[in-house]
DNA sequence: CTGTTAGCGCTTTCAG
DNA sequence: CTGAAAGCGCTAACAG
């Protein structure tokens, strides 16, 4: 169907190897032939078969991005950054969603052991307590980089934001706005981001001598319906918190929706502070106060780190961590 | 590095071809050997090299999704649908962003002529007036499907929503809420979605005898800054419209932000109606009224159509169009 | 500077 | 039911 090197070389009365070299600007080919070859290639609309090259070179010029969900502001921004970086480098990006299921994360990891990609960027699921599937990839020599949802026990570059610090500041902001009973709603008991954010939140409360009530530090799970019920129970109780610190956007939105149902006035009855990137639009700003992660930059940074280790011949990954700064965006009406 | 068929067959004292067949459940292999082979393969953690298979089979089990931007509610939802469908079928998804630039769309198309993917799903850029690059792909025998931003002159399956009808209904809603001076803010003069939405909007105005002022039917372009200025000028003028019909979410958000700057009260001073999928969150609902497209379903539907034509041996694509229904979500405070 | 040749790892006739 | 061998299209070592 498509024209290949053999045909092309025949038309040019040159050997296959000469043509191959000419097309890849090898220094051992004269300028004259290079020009002639390239012209003909364009004429015949020649495009190298990537599988043949990949097979020969043992590399694919492709990276994988594994994320819980693409339809999520943070992850789609990060994917944007990663894809943009990769495109600049002439690389292709395969995308895989785990839908927050460890089983899928494992299955995808297994699939990628075959060398289909030269490197992997991953943000773990809520459920990922064990990372031996990632370890296996590394053992096969496939470069891996974590971003945002990292596993701390693996020797892999990690790109995160300053979760503890930002949560600390965010909570201080709530306290300064007069909140005395702050609830933390998390997404996982195994994810570092969750635990760091919780720790930052608690530290701020401790510093300002706010009583910590463990019964209003809750964790959601996979079940959306149950989560809503949990949050509803929390917000509908007689000694309801006066603020919610939502670990992620998704939870902030659920909380917001429940406030509407319960006719609670935000921010009078309840303040919502959340990690969220929706506030790139003015719209969310008017509804809650948020901690925004530099998501696009994280994607680019992660890709950039990945390329660094991909380019190394004998790749020995180190567990360095790059921490980017989040920023606190204060709700309009609170300022 | 990785174990291959040769090694595996050596360990089993079988020929390469027998092992290959056993692994792919060929009927000409005895159950006993199949079992033995598969067990060993698992033991040795064997994974077929995809490039070798691809080269041999001339197919990649990979599709490409080409979109203007991934960090966009509609496109990320659609990508979610496409990726989910592909994952179910055991296919991989390559993602490419055009960033609304025709030049990139062309460059990506050229890259994909080499057979890296078995099929392509694409949503065009704002600038795409000419689609010969897509035609070239089709001529190379690569199945293509359009979704949302389609080119009407090509014989390709197209998945769209009922743009005219929904815009008509959305505009009627504005009119019934008392609007008398409605502005349409578009994104392109070549995209069918833009023109169909505009047509629907105008038709509703005509039906209800609302005066159409061409000076407030405007089109944005690539320049974000200029766009904001245009919209600001529109909303700051003495005979400002009492409603804006935003062709896409992006424009609705800009309009919203400008209202804040100008201290315009939404929806009292200005109503905003928009195509938007942000309203999956309660948050946007409280700010504007929107027409929501079934984005996830569109992604799945487009993937599904793509697979249909990919599976056909001698693929002759027809220009069938599948139209999905959008829904009008009315702003809370207006109900 | 150009050509010949040997694979990359897999699938698939064709023989047995 | 199993094995030998050719070849997918490209690259790179080796020769000239």
List the secondary-structure elements of chain A in sequence, H or E: HHHHEHEHEHEEHEHEHEHEHEHEE
Strand order of the largest sheet of chain A: 2-1-3-4-5-11
Q: Regarding quaternary structure, how should these chains be classified?
A: homodimer
CATH superfamily of the largest domain in chain A: Response regulator
Biggest sheet layout of chain A: 6 strands, parallel
Determine and state the CATH class of the largest domain in chain A. Alpha Beta
DSSP summary: helix tally of chain A: 13
- The span between the termini of chain A is 65 Å
Strand content of chain A: 15-25%
Query: What is the total domain count of chain A?
Result: 3
Number of strands of chain A: 12
**CATH fold naming of the largest domain in chain A:** Rossmann fold
Most extensive interface: A-B, 53 and 53 residues
* Secondary structure category of chain A: alpha/beta
Gross CATH architecture of the largest domain in chain A: 3-Layer(aba) Sandwich
Helix content of chain A: 40-55%
What global shape of chain A is seen? Answer: elongated
Outline the low-pLDDT stretches of chain A.
none
Mean pLDDT across the residues of chain A is 90
Radius of gyration of chain A from CA coordinates: 25 Å
């Amino acid at each position: 169907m498509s024209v290949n090197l053999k045909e092309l070389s025949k038309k040019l009365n040159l050997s296959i190897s000469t043509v191959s070299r000419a097309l890849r600007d090898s220094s051992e080919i004269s300028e004259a032939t290079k020009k002639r070859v390239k012209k003909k290639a364009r004429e015949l609309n020649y495009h190298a078969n990537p599988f043949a090259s990949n097979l020969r070179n043992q590399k694919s010029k492709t990276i994988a991005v594994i994320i819980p969900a693409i339809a999520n502001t943070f992850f789609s921004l990060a994917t944007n950054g990663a894809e943009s970086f990769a495109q600049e480098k002439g690389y292709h990006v395969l995308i895989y969603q785990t839908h927050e299921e460890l089983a899928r994360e494992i299955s995808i990891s297994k699939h990628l052991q075959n060398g289909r990609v030269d490197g992997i960027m991953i943000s773990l699921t809520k459920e990922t307590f064990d990372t031996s599937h990632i370890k296996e990839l590394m053992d096969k020599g496939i470069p891996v980089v974590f971003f945002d949802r990292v596993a701390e026990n693996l020797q892999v570059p990690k790109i995160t934001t300053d979760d503890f610090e930002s949560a600390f500041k965010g909570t201080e902001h709530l306290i300064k706005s007069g909140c005395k009973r702050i609830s933390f709603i998390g997404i996982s008991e195994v994810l570092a981001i969750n635990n760091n954010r919780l720790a930052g939140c608690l530290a701020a409360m401790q510093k300002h001598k706010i009583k910590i009530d463990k019964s209003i530090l809750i964790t959601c799970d996979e079940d959306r319906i149950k989560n809503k019920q949990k949050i509803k129970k929390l917000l509908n109780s007689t000694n309801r918190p006066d603020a919610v610190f939502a670990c992620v956007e998704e939870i902030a939105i659920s909380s917001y929706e429940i406030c509407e149902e319960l006719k609670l006035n935000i921010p009078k009855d309840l303040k919502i502070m959340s990690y969220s990137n929706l506030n790139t639009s003015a719209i969310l700003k008017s509804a809650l106060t948020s901690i925004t992660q530099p998501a696009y930059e994280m994607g680019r940074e992660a890709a950039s780190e990945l390329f660094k280790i991909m380019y190394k011949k004998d790749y020995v990954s180190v567990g360095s961590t790059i921490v980017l700064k989040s920023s606190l965006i204060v709700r309009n009406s609170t300022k």
